[in-house]
Amino acid sequence: MNCRRSPLHPPSPKGPSVNTSPAAPASAPASGLALAVSDTAALRRLYFLRFAFAVLWAALLFASAGDLGPLSATLLVIYPLFDAACAVADVRSARAHRGPVRGLYANIALSALTAAGLAAAATSGIPAVLRVWGVWAVTAGLVQLLVGVLRRAMGGQWPMIVSGAISTLAGSSFIAQAAKDNASLSTLAGYATLGGVFFLISALRLGRAGRATRLPGTAGRAV
């Protein structure tokens, strides 16, 4: 009697078989975690850069705030342009990691328009500059507040939310100050310094949030 096995039933391999199919889905959470950590690190570096720039800019403006000369006028235009450039970098990072970008696009448009408005206002005097800056502070503050709310899941966004609310109030005070006789650019230096401090706090809190994301059971503690 022929005992050969049918080709439809190949012999079983020697030793136990190892089923590796369940391991495939695990790559999705790992990939998502890596993207979240990368996004947080990029945003943290951007916040540190914005803090350093704000402090340096405020010091230069305060030193030249006595009159609206070429240096102070140049500084006034540079600030919103730098803000727009940072928003562009933020958009690229957010798009790469599927984050919210609509508010960032609005911020880019507002900053570009403000740079042009300040260039024109600088030829009219400090009150005109304060009015343009005040409108920008109000609108940009609202956008920053919205972006911070949308990014709460990343952690470290409460300082940005508070800073956005303060910016809105400060903008109103700049517009009111423009109508007074003692209008000065020094208030803008203080505004930029405070904004830079909030960026620094957010960067530090994002570091805590990033460490919490990498450690099991700690996600969500830093907000």
Rounded to the nearest angstrom, the distance between the terminal CA atoms is: 77 Å
- How many strands in all? 0
The string of secondary-structure elements, in order, is HHHHHH
Number of helices: 6
Overall average residue pLDDT: 79
- Which outline best applies? elongated
**Which stretches are low in confidence, meaning pLDDT under 50 for 5 or more residues running?**
20-36, 218-223
Q: What structural class do the secondary elements suggest? A: mainly alpha
Main sheet summary: none
Strand proportion: under 5%
Helix content: over 70%
* Gyration radius from CA atoms, angstroms: 26 Å
Describe this structure in words.
- This protein has 223 residues and is mostly helical.
- 71% of the residues lie in helices and 0% in strands.
- The chain has six helices and no strands.
- The chain has helices spanning 27-63, 70-96, 102-121, 126-150, 158-177, 186-214.
- The longest helix has 37 residues, at 27-63.
- The N and C termini lie far apart (77 Å).
- The model is unreliable at 20-36 and 218-223 (pLDDT under 50).
